[in-house]
Design a protein that fits this description.
The protein is mainly beta and 289 residues long. Helix content is 11%, strand content 34%. The chain contains three helices and 20 strands. It has helices at residues 108-118, 156-168, 234-240; strands spanning 3-9, 18-20, 22-26, 29-30, 36-39, 58-61, 67-71, 78-81, 92-96, 99-105, 123-126, 151-155, 183-186, 197-202, 205-214, 221-222, 227-228, 249-258, 260-263, 268-273. The protein has an eight-stranded mixed beta sheet. A hairpin with a 5-residue loop joins strand 6 (58-61) and strand 7 (67-71).
């Protein structure tokens, strides 16, 4: 049986992941996952696609979400009391992939810190309490500021198979953090098994398949240095993981259909399987960031 071997959340979209041994699975994914967003002028979101240095910013958020700490090389840490947006706090207009959202600005102090680290005018915003985003795919759901669905699952079988292909071509294998998964699953022999999962129970929660994760230029970013380090893995993925709608698929996305606690070591129990060719819309921005 497959089991969860890694749990990673990304409190600030585009910034470094936070590994954990256990996490609450909320309707929007792992607790605090992508609940904060870095935006530039006009409220347009920043992503590693254009701002790869986001990768070196390492967030830490308290369990209750009331405090956030940001770390970056050669900078003093930034400790922030989070404005949750409760009550009558003002809302900011932000934009992600051309879609407008409302968010809670976190103030000038963290804006100055981010602007210095990224070398570009930036602000930090948070999902407001009334955030009611609906995500698409085979199973409807919600998420914070993730690209699309709430939870990204990748198996070690798929990852190891990719790196074998990269190494066979005489190139350097990549690290798991290039793909920014939320749940890493081990125990399946065949790669891409996650493509066929339709419903799964894990810990106290339940997930429903939405779509394949279409990979983008974020996978070309060295997550430790914040520098672009392509052409792998996209070069190798293009040889065997192209999808008809365009792009290359690797890993699968899920909506949360039942909340609960998830722990490393939990069984990843598939209760419904699909086919190798999922009958779902594959958005070109369905990969995590």
């Amino acid at each position: 049986m497959a089991t969860v071997v890694e749990l990673i959340s990304y409190p600030v979209k585009g910034c470094a992941g936070v590994p954990a041994t256990e996490a609450e699975l909320t309707p929007a994914g792992l607790a605090h996952d992508r609940s904060f967003l870095v935006v530039g002028p006009g409220g347009v979101f920043r992503s590693q696609r254009t701002d790869p240095r986001l990768a070196v910013i390492r967030p830490a958020v308290e369990a209750d979400g009331a405090q956030l700490t940001l770390h970056a090389p050669d900078c003093d840490p930034l400790h922030l009391d989070v404005d949750s947006g409760a009550g009558s706090a003002a809302r900011s207009e932000v934009e992600m992939f051309g879609t407008p959202y409302r968010a809670v600005d976190q103030g000038d102090r963290v804006a100055g810190w981010l602007s210095e680290v990224l070398g570009a005018e930036s602000r930090l915003v948070r999902v407001p309490p009334e955030h009611d985003r609906v995500t698409d795919g085979l199973t409807p759901g919600t998420s914070g500021f993730a690209d699309s669905s709430a939870v990204h699952v990748l198996s070690l079988a798929s990852f190891d198979d990719l790196n074998r292909r990269i190494a066979a071509a005489g190139r350097t294998p990549v690290t798991m953090d290039r793909f920014r998964p939320n749940l890493v699953v081990d125990g399946w022999e065949a790669p891409q098994t996650e493509d066929r999962v339709r419903r799964v129970t894990v810990g106290g929660g339940m997930l429903g398949f939405t779509k394949l994760a279409i990979r983008c230029a974020v996978t070309l970013v060295n997550q430790q240095t914040g520098g672009k380090a392509g052409p792998e893995p996209l070069r190798t993925l293009a040889a065997y993981r192209r999808v008809p709608e365009g792009g290359v698929a690797f890993g699968s996305k899920f909506a949360v259909v039942g909340t609960g606690k998830v722990t490393v070591g939990d069984a990843f129990e598939v209760t419904e399987w699909g086919t190798d060719g999922p009958e779902t819309t594959r958005s070109p921005r369905s990969g995590p960031s």
